[in-house]
Amino acid sequence: MRKFLLVLMGLACVIGHVSAAERSRPVRIGALTESWGPTPGVVGLRDGLHKLGYQENKDFVIGVRFTQGDSAALPAAAKELVQQGVDILFPSGRSAAKAAQMATRKVPIVFYGGPDPVEQGLVQSFARPGGNITGIANLDLELCSKRLEVFLEMIPGLKRVLFLHDVTDSYSAAEATAYRDAARQLNIVLLDKAVRTEVEVKAALAQVRKDNVHGILSPRDVTFNIPGYILEIASQKTIPAMFPMTWWVEQGGIASYSQDGYESGRMAARLVDKIIKGAKPAEIPVEVNSKIELVINLKVAKAQGITISPEVLYRANRVIR
């Protein structure tokens, strides 16, 4: 199992809830993610708490445990955060939220990102979550069709698109269905490749050639480090890759179309504030982040010999030059 990085200060006994009474120490927030470090959502949470009048290190501290693409390591990481005495768990996405849910029924959990939390069994309803969980949902499946449409508008001659996904993961399977439906409507051939291991991911991408694959769609989940390997092969073979998270574009992907992860974290700060003041997660409605952003890495486009039309660039929320 990979080692985790823990950036927390002065953790002591386990705390089952956050009291509204005056505190003698900062509120300890344990962020849990299967990414490779602090996510935009973590930054958004910190900035959101600042805006609400909280001072970092005085009123709150945020510790981050990340598992570098290893979703199987999330349950152990969540348990360690609980054992270290965090006051609030802040998991990123579906897998981390499920791991947090398994780790504790007492410590308040504020998730951000991920699909329908009711369908995933995280909450009873959006209005009254029940239990110790609330958060910010993304409902990303609804964006699959538009994401592929934007990809087609960006890349002239996009006809054959590869989509790799973990066959054992129900959400990834739902993504594949959504992309298949969208591809039929857009007259695109979707090369849907289901994989079960990291070895299969590498083998599938090793066969990719520019003459048989015009673009690659990345799944949202980072199981088997699929997005990381897509990023690597896209750079090596100069094939454009579309991602469902901005972070990958900042690392060298050509584009992403997704909910604004920073905004999800900023919205979550309001929920954390309510819990600190004594509200129960069970009674704090789940919110939906409706802020969508298109991010384009123009440096990557130029390196791959792709000219993106001014119309598409104009629609981008952010262009990396």
What would your notes on this structure say?
The protein is α/β, with parallel strands linked by helices. It has two domains: 27-139 and 261-291, Response regulator (Rossmann fold); 141-258 and 293-320, Rossmann fold (3-Layer(aba) Sandwich), CATH 3.40.50.2300. It is 36% helix and 20% strand. Strands 7-6-8-9-10-12-13 form a seven-stranded mixed β-sheet, sandwiched between helices. Strands 2-1-3 form a three-stranded parallel β-sheet. Strands 4-5-11 form a three-stranded parallel β-sheet, with helices on both faces.
Short note summarizing the structure:
It contains eleven helices and 13 strands. With 321 residues, the protein is an alpha/beta fold.
Fold blueprint:
Blueprint: E1 27-33, H1 40-51, E2 60-66, H2 74-84, E3 88-91, H3 93-103, E4 109-112, E5 133-137, H4 144-154, E6 160-166, H5 170-186, E7 189-195, H6 198-206, E8 215-217, H7 226-236, E9 241-243, H8 246-250, E10 255-259, H9 261-276, E11 287-288, E12 292-297, H10 298-303, H11 310-315, E13 318-320
Parallel strand pairs: 1-2, 1-3, 4-5, 5-11, 6-7, 6-8, 8-9, 9-10, 12-13
Antiparallel strand pairs: 10-12
